[in-house]
Amino acid sequence: MSKRKTFDSLSYSMVDLFENDDHYETEVYHEGTKITRRNYDALARRVSTITRDPELIVMMSRSWKTYAGFPKIKLPEGELGDVRLQDALMRRRSQLSSFSGESISAEQLSAVLRNTYGPTLTTDFPNRPHDFMRFRASPSAGGLYPLEIYPLVFNVEGCEPGLYHYCVVDHSLELLRSGPIRDEFLGRNLTPYRELAATCSVLFAITAVLPRTVSKYLFRGYRFLSYDVGAVLQSFYLTGTALGLGTCAIGGFFDNEVGEFIQVDNVDEHVMMLFSIGQSTPDPRRPVNG
Ligand SMILES: Cc1cc2nc3c(=O)[nH]c(=O)nc-3n(C[C@H](O)[C@H](O)[C@H](O)COP(=O)(O)O)c2cc1C
Description:
two-stranded parallel sheet, globular
């Protein structure tokens, strides 16, 4: 296979897929994001310049977006209850094919957001009485928190349907667009996982604001963004499970079109993943291990 083909123009035969293909794009990505003995010094210099500069540290700690001027909805506290971590881990499953279609509550939506990417510990900086470091419920490389969460609220009691942005600093939702958001989403065929989108209560679009991480970690940054997304996905899964809800990550979607739908620029800020939650249906998989 020609190495000049762009990924968009690929048409794999089955033989290409399983035997001859060299997975060129993946290898380029992986090679380009490796720390090696040759590039380590440049990366370490970059990181140390940043960590020694108090102005930069404070600037980089302000890692959240707000949509000024849009209606703000304060979320309830958001309690998970006292489910044991081990039980949540053992019970966690991806909802296969569809949810029941029944609503979830605003309290449940709030609990998922707070315990997935919400604010936790706040610390101060020496001699900076007005600046704070805000840690979140999921870990993030360098504490840079590059991710933003846009809940597409389809069917939540106590929260009108619409496209929202999760405002982390005050645990609120900013209403970017109200109306029949599910119909609009389905009407554009943005994912092949149509049944999940048609029956879930909330579809979260998880974006990454690339410069927040890449400006510090350079070529290594894209990997770190992806790892951050993985951590957030697990938090989504576990919080949803702890609340007795069905959950499913959705990696299959048309990237740029979902980005346009939620109105991010698809350059500095990209959609990395979708995540669906709703009332569950029985899992058709048949356990053989009890
Ligand atoms: C990164 C990632 C992407 C995924 N994308 C999809 C998807 O697009 N559609 C889907 O139905 N399930 C998706 N899943 C769910 C997996 O299919 C599921 O985790 C896997 O089958 C194992 O089942 P379990 O989660 O119930 O343990 C995704 C999971 C992950 C972690």
